[in-house]
Amino acid sequence: MSQERRKDLNLTSPMEDLELYRYKTCEQMTTQGWSGLYWARKNEAGDYEIRGVTKEGEGYSYPAGVFAKEAFERY
Q1: How many other C-beta atoms can be found within 10 angstroms of the C-beta atom of residue 43?
Q2: What is the pLDDT of residues 13-63, one digit of tens each?
Q3: Residue 73 to residue 75: CA distance in whole angstroms
Q4: Strand, coil or helix: what is 22?
């Protein structure tokens, strides 16, 4: 995703300790309403709490669940 497309998104972290990531193959996905970006942070168990970032023009985050460390680090 180019910087040009990201300028329309609200990329202010919704909570402390979250880092912004980009899904590796988001251009190939057909998921509607998703920018391919997500916020993540490690929880006490070592897994990752995920918040997806909606599409361009919106850019709000929403809870997307918890991913096991192995699954998160694979993608």
Answers
A1: 10
A2: 878 889 988 877 666 666 666 677 889 999 999 999 988 887 765 666 777
A3: 6
A4: strand
pTM for this prediction: 0.67
Domain count, the chain: 1
- From CA 61, how far away is CA 46, in angstroms rounded? 22
For tokens 């057909």, name the residue.
Answer: 30
Tell me the residue range of the domain where 43 lies: 3-74
Q: Is 69 helix (H, G, I), strand (E, B) or coil?
A: helix
Instruction: Quote the CA–CA distance of 49 and 44 in Å, as a whole number.
Output: 10
